[in-house]
Specification:
With about 425 residues, this protein is an alpha+beta fold. It contains 15 helices and 15 strands. The protein folds into 4 domains: about 120 residues, 2-Layer Sandwich (Beta-Lactamase); about 100 residues, Beta-Lactamase (2-Layer Sandwich), CATH 3.30.450.20; about 100 residues, 2-Layer Sandwich (Beta-Lactamase); about 80 residues, Orthogonal Bundle (Helix Hairpins), CATH 1.10.287. A hairpin with a 5-residue loop joins strand 3 and strand 4. Helix 13 packs antiparallel against helix 15 and helix 14 runs antiparallel to helix 15.
Length: about 425
């Protein structure tokens, strides 16, 4: 019997100084009866403060139902309450693996509670579950370039199981990484402790990825997003833009786009060359102040009309090298998804040659009408005289003097007809000069 106090003191010492969090509480009153030093450090209370608490004070409100649902404690046996969330004095939440055992404390039935801190493990599992649920591929590498974590999205992207990658050297498992920018960029992250972003190709599955790599205390963390479809779309858009740009830049017609403030936001090479000739400024440095004020007033009026939703054409007259030029200019409003005018598309086509041809044809027609009038009026009179005289000369016998008189009249009519023909030829020559 003399050894019992010694044994009790030894057990109390193990309870108070043990490395595991332990406390004893009254099951009915849910009040703490004793608490060890590890628990004081873990929860942040003093010994006196802890003994004034109730069991619910160290659990978050949303976790307190777990107190009611805890398994019934069987005397003489440890009971596991599973993983619980507890709250420190400062309000911080952490995870514990809990075990309970019925005991006798100061001659009263009580519960000895053992709480093993599994906060880091539980939070690591939470993080792992989160990383496995995201659609971005994710993995971590240590300073020996070994995989330490791989999520499901990365498994799917590479077509490899994580157990085949964890612990393996990234450059040995994926040697193509040395040939592409992965190697240099990842080394940059580790050496300079900076984050990097780049796009790169994965040859084993013919895909493109957007890569974000970040330094960590253990090495680096990498997020990858498959951008194969986006990249293909970008390349298609770029190719189409280049083809369209080649088309509009290989024409002498002027093409430009004006925004709602009447500022030129896009134009082909022909337009910029023309504007540079007008303003005398470099093609990429044009501003409203560079244009003649009177021209701005005129063109802004056209833009305003198109901004009202109207499509129309005008004939613009100008001079080049001292010669008149004519251009047909089209204004077409561009509508956005809300059916509002967002820009004005303008197209100017040189119609000088067609205009000159049209005017030449008009002058030619005037000459032709003159010739036709001469033929219908001037030719008819001498020709009728000639025909009548010839008929008389051939139809009757007449004295010589009368015959000679008719011949003289015939010659006069022939001379008149000849003059008419000469006039027609003169008009025809003038017609050819006009055509030339």
């Amino acid at each position: 019997m003399q050894q019992l106090p010694t044994i009790t003191e030894e057990y109390l010492h193990l309870f108070r100084e043990g490395p595991l969090t332990m406390y004893i509480y009254d099951d009915e009153a849910e009040k703490f009866l004793a608490v060890n030093n590890t628990a004081l450090c873990q929860y942040g209370y003093s010994h006196e403060e802890f003994l004034t608490l109730r069991l619910s004070d160290i659990q978050p409100v949303e976790e307190q139902d777990a107190l009611i649902q805890q398994p019934k404690i069987v005397p003489g046996m440890y009971t596991s309450s599973g993983r619980l969330r507890h709250r420190r004095k400062n309000g911080e939440i952490f995870y514990v693996q809990s075990y309970s055992h019925q005991t006798i404390f100061e001659q009263h039935t009580a519960i000895l509670f053992l709480a093993i801190d599994v906060d880091q493990t539980e939070k690591a599992l939470e993080i792992e579950n989160i990383l496995d649920s995201i659609t971005d591929a994710f993995y971590t590498i240590n300073h020996r370039w070994q995989f330490t974590h791989v999520n499901k999205a990365y498994e799917k992207l590479l077509g490899r199981k994580r157990e085949d990658m964890i612990g393996g050297n990234i450059w040995e498992l994926f040697p193509y990484g040395r040939e592409f920018s992965y190697y240099d960029r990842y080394h940059q992250v580790v050496k300079d402790q900076v984050s990097v972003h780049f796009e790169e190709y994965i040859p084993i599955n013919n895909s493109w990825v957007s890569v974000n790599a970040y330094p960590t205390t253990e090495g680096l963390a990498v997020y990858m997003v498959d951008i194969s479809e986006q990249r293909q779309l970008r390349e298609t858009i770029y190719t189409n833009e280049q083809n369209l740009r080649a088309i509009i830049n290989n024409t002498t017609d002027l093409i430009w786009l004006v925004n709602t403030d009447f500022k030129i936001i896009s134009a082909n090479r022909a337009f910029r060359d023309r504007m540079a000739g007008i303003t005398g400024r470099a093609k990429d440095k044009l501003a409203d102040a560079d244009y003649p004020a009177d021209l701005l007033v005129i063109w802004n009026a056209y833009y305003r009309q198109a901004m009202d939703g109207n499509s129309f054409k005008i004939i613009w007259t100008d001079t080049k090298d001292g010669n008149p030029i004519y251009e047909e200019v089209s204004f077409n409003p561009v509508f956005d998804q809300q059916d509002k005018v967002s820009a004005i598309s303008c197209f100017s086509r040189d119609i000088t040659e067609a205009r000159i041809d049209r005017e030449r044809i008009l002058r030619q027609n005037q000459q032709l009408r003159k010739i036709a009038w001469i033929q219908s009026h001037e030719v008819r009179s001498p020709l009728a005289n000639i025909m009548g005289l010839v008929q008389l000369l051939t139809a009757t016998d007449m004295p010589e003097e009368e015959f000679l008189n008719m011949l003289s009249m015939l010659k006069t009519s022939a001379d008149q007809l000849n003059q008419v023909i000469f006039d027609i030829m003169t008009q025809a020559n003038n017609h050819d000069d006009v055509a030339d």
